[in-house]
Design brief:
Distance between the termini: 49 Å
Mean pLDDT: 93
Strand content: 15-25%
Number of helices: 8
Largest sheet: 6 strands, mixed
Order of helices and strands: EHHHHHEEEHEEHH
Shape: globular
CATH topology of the largest domain: Lambda Exonuclease, Chain A
Low-confidence stretches: none
Helix content: 40-55%
Oligomer: single chain
Number of strands: 6
CATH class of the largest domain: Alpha Beta
CATH architecture of the largest domain: Alpha-Beta Complex
Bound molecules: iron/sulfur cluster
Amino acid sequence: MIEFPAIERGERLSISASLFTTYLRCPGQALAQLQGRYGPESRAAFSGMLAHRIFARHLTDGAIESDQFTAACRQEIGQAMNPKLVALQLRPSELRGVIAEVGTLYERFQTISTTGCRSVETELDVPVSPDITLRGRIDAVFDDGGGVRLVDWKTGALGGVQEQLAFYALLWLLHHGEPPAIVEAASVSSGERYEQVPAIATLTETANQVVEMIDVLRLGFVDEASVPRVGGPGCQYCPLSDECAEGKAARRVLSA
Ligand code: SF4
């Protein structure tokens, strides 16, 4: 177990793995999210979310027959994704294209061994001070004889996942009193896989990074200019992209 660093009293904040990784890429974008400003919906994110819903359905209810697949996708969209569908303004033909893409991902997903899966879309909420809660949703938790393994499935390239996995491992440690044996990210589309054996030193460092983030973002509520902005590929999904000099510069480079 680790002792979570002391946090000053201040604004109540809910810190997700997604906010943490956004902060590490660009603190300015993380501040915008905390202020309720989000970038535009993207087709890729919609497709990824639908794929995750289908993977979870497979693990909880069993394999989906091919003649039931489109209906299963439409049910999942109807249950939780309609606002995103409306925001994207997908035409019926485009939606069929998304469902076909998810179908290809599902075929690959079915080749992955799911032996030992003990829970799916596991939500963890851990208060670490009177004002701060850390939270995350873990795609799947396995216990197949070698200890607990947390798995995050990606529907695109793996990218940099170390910090996200360390955040999940920290959450697990704080919630259960011991770290998972392994945290893993696996790309269903490319087959890439990355695993981490969480060390206490790494999780202590992650906890320190979270506290530093909280300090920076809280200061940003009163002095927005104090929060650094770091341009990169994430600028295209940032709500500040039209007003941010760093973001405009990054987009010029990316479009050149
Ligand atoms: S546009 Fe880019 S640099 Fe500017 S805040 Fe957003 S992510 Fe950061």
